[in-house]
Design brief:
With 390 residues, the protein is of the alpha+beta class. 34% of the residues lie in helices and 27% in strands. It is built from twelve helices and 13 strands. Strands 1, 2, 3, 4, 5, 6, 7, 8, 9, 10, 11, 12 and 13 form a 13-stranded mixed beta sheet that branches. A hairpin with a 2-residue loop joins strand 9 (268-273) and strand 10. Helix 6 packs across helix 11. The protein starts with 16 loop residues before the first strand and ends with a strand.
């Protein structure tokens, strides 16, 4: 029987040098490259560069306690033309019983050969660390930004979701990445109101014995945080993508979200059954429009222009982002999802928000997909996860 042929990957551009980042100057260039790449893209919203630096700092982000990550820059002469990160998450591989590396933080000019050089270098690093395939793009993990935007470019770039030019899909496919799964993002419209059938389900849940809905208790946020993590962990099982977070990772994630929670605590709810938290929904202002005018900087030349623009823009926000949502097993199909959704929509309306985005939901999670559509949401974006052998 003939041996299977090794795929003929796209030829890398011969004038491109891809080098691992080791110096502070190189790391700064890695973080700043998207500002140049997206300079003419009106849809792109740059994250705050200081926040990106902290997020990618192995001394500050607890993700690095169980993961190894390398960062690479592609140069043509003196000009940076692409970047990529490669990593191995040991906890992910143990939980899912896989031998996988990831690629992410991918940015590249519109040249297949440049992308080929980046993928070859990242794949070589992953193979040298013992993995047999690379999965991505991920901003290091599935609970960070994940997937490649392939549908829904006409919709706003929301917080903590990927954004990329349409040509990225071609760069991945030309380099023999295959689709693993699509992830969908959904939109709620407060203007359309809450569907009557969903409202009836929420009312039945509200009248159920022992069920009580309340707002998140800011004065007991540490206790609330532990309850939310317990519910979140109870929902996870080996399958696609997610895994239980370490306590340090969960604390770090909540630390990043805390300013948004404090800005609009009216959008965060917990459901109790006989006094015990069993479900939650944490929604926050989607601050992308406020961040847009800062263009990545809180201050320039010692003057906090970016921060002032953000503070001014916060008053004009129209969208809400549903960041975390969960129901403990044993309490599903009891209308708690409808109860949380109804309260969130009504609270958003009272605060003047007109739209909300929720995601991601995997394409084969039919039950959850049907549920959010029953609650009045419509799919608006598709994020695709790819893989390739190394």
């Amino acid at each position: 029987m003939p041996r299977p042929r090794t795929p003929a990957y796209a030829a890398k551009a011969l004038d491109i040098e891809v080098a691992e980042v080791h110096s502070p100057e190189g790391f700064s260039a890695f973080i700043r490259f998207p500002l140049k790449l997206y300079a003419q893209d009106a849809n792109y919203v740059s994250p705050i560069l200081v926040e990106r630096r902290e997020f990618l700092d192995s001394r500050r982000n607890p993700f690095f306690e169980h993961a190894q990550v390398a960062f690479f820059l592609a140069r043509r002469g003196e000009h940076i033309v692409g970047r990529i990160a490669a990593g191995i998450d040991e906890r992910y591989n143990r939980f899912h019983k896989t031998n996988t590396g990831f690629v992410g933080l991918f940015e590249c000019i519109q040249e297949v050969g440049v992308a080929a050089a980046l993928f070859e270098r990242a794949g070589g690093w992953i193979k040298a660390h013992g993995a047999v395939e690379m999965l991505g793009p991920l901003s290091m993990a599935f609970h960070h930004e994940c997937g490649l935007l392939v549908h829904g470019f006409e919709h706003p770039h929301s917080m903590y979701t990927p954004y990329n030019p349409p040509y990225y899909e071609q760069l991945f496919e030309a380099n023999h990445f295959r689709k693993v799964k699509d992830l969908y993002s959904y939109e709620f419209s407060a203007k359309q109101g809450f569907p009557q059938k969903a409202r009836q389900a929420a009312q039945r849940a509200r009248q159920s014995k022992g069920i009580h809905l309340r707002r998140l208790r800011l004065e007991q946020l540490e206790v609330e945080k532990d309850s939310i993590k317990s519910i979140y962990d109870s929902m996870l099982k080996p399958g696609f993508g997610l895994l239980p977070l370490t306590q340090a990772e969960f604390d770090y994630a909540m630390h990043r979200l805390r300013p948004l929670i404090m800005a609009r605590p009216e959008l965060c709810f917990v459901v109790e059954a006989d006094g015990e938290p069993v479900a939650f929904a944490l929604s926050m202002p989607d601050a992308q429009n406020a961040l847009r005018s800062a263009k990545g900087y809180l201050s320039r030349f010692g003057i906090p222009w970016g921060l002032l623009k953000i503070l001014w823009g916060v008053h004009k926000l129209e969208r809400v982002r549903v960041f975390l949502f969960g129901i403990r097993p044993g309490f599903r199909r009891r209308g708690l999802d409808a109860l949380l959704a109804e309260e969130t929509v009504e609270a958003a309306q009272k605060q003047g928000y007109c739209l909300g985005e929720l995601g991601w939901i995997a394409q084969d999670d039919a039950l959850l997909g049907r549920t959010v559509q029953f609650l009045g949401a419509k799919p608006i974006k598709t994020f695709r996860v790819f893989s390739r052998a190394v």
